[in-house]
Amino acid sequence: MNRRYRKTIIAGNWKMNKTASETKQFAEDLKAILPKGKWCEVVVCVPFVNIPAALRAFKDMRVAVGAENLYYEPKGAYTGEVSAEMLKDLGVKYVIVGHSERRQYFGETDITVNKKVHAALEAGLHPIICVGETLEQREMGITMDLINLQVKSAFSGVPADKARKCVVAYEPVWAIGTGKTATAEQAAEVCTAIRTAIRSLYGARVARSITIQYGGSMNPKNAFELLSQPDVDGGLIGGAALKADQFVDIINAANQE
Ligand code: PEP
């Protein structure tokens, strides 16, 4: 990570876990152990229905609340969907876009990801754009080409001043929820390639200002090494973000680096 040019961001992705009352309990547990000094930005991305509870619970804790998804249309007949403006109006700061589970189970594509990035930015949200290869794609040797394509399509049509507000999360699909973490070298290699792709789109100044996270079975044991890589500026954390003590251990690892 490089604190001089960009924010370190540790973000939890709760996926479809926790009720509103469990959200409150988590916040109480976190409050008791969260370090006071503030090096890194802490974000908790929660299911839509838990957003009001999370905003109340984290209010005086310097923990930003994020959503896990949004729909790209501003309003209208899209039953069951939630717009960027609705999230912004509640007080949400970040929104995960293009998580591999959404690509895999809900038909999200590079095109819808790009539309969602535009919608989030338009509303003043910070999209956390997820990119990553499957095991098959890694074994075929096409990781870098694929990441390049995912990054370029996610940012398509996004002007430089808005691109700066984006976060990119490198999440190898084979490492998500599997306990198989990318090695620090693998994470470093791809995160550097992501920054190179951004540089080719926007130039060096924008590229060095964008936070690039690693996600995929990050835990208190491997966090420090992963976060020590020059282009790894934080983590997007699933399983280990559900327990306050593990989440804080990762925050501490980020503060220590
Ligand atoms: C995720 O959901 O983005 C994730 C990285 O999950 P896990 O940490 O459980 O692999």
Low-confidence parts: none
Helix- and strand-based class? Answer: alpha/beta
Name the helix and strand elements from N-terminus to C-terminus, one letter apiece: EHEHEHEHHEHHHEHHEHEH
Bound molecules: phosphoenolpyruvate
How would you characterize this protein structure?
With 257 residues, the protein is of the alpha/beta class. The protein has a single domain (9-256), classed as Aldolase class I (TIM Barrel). The chain has helices spanning 20-33, 51-57, 84-90, 100-105, 110-123, 135-139, 143-154, 160-163, 184-202, 204-209, 223-227, 244-256, and strands spanning 9-13, 41-46, 63-67, 94-97, 126-131, 167-170, 211-215, 234-237. The protein has an eight-stranded parallel beta barrel, surrounded by five helices. Bound molecules: phosphoenolpyruvate. Phosphoenolpyruvate binds at residues 13, 15, 171, 176-177, 215-218, 236-240.
Would you kindly provide a brief summary of this structure?
The chain contains twelve helices and eight strands. It has 257 residues and is α/β, with parallel strands linked by helices.
Spell out the blueprint of helices and strands.
Blueprint: E1 9-13, H1 20-33, E2 41-46, H2 51-57, E3 63-67, H3 84-90, E4 94-97, H4 100-105, H5 110-123, E5 126-131, H6 135-139, H7 143-154, H8 160-163, E6 167-170, H9 184-202, H10 204-209, E7 211-215, H11 223-227, E8 234-237, H12 244-256
Parallel strand pairs: 1-2, 1-8, 2-3, 3-4, 4-5, 5-6, 6-7, 7-8
The structure holds phosphoenolpyruvate.
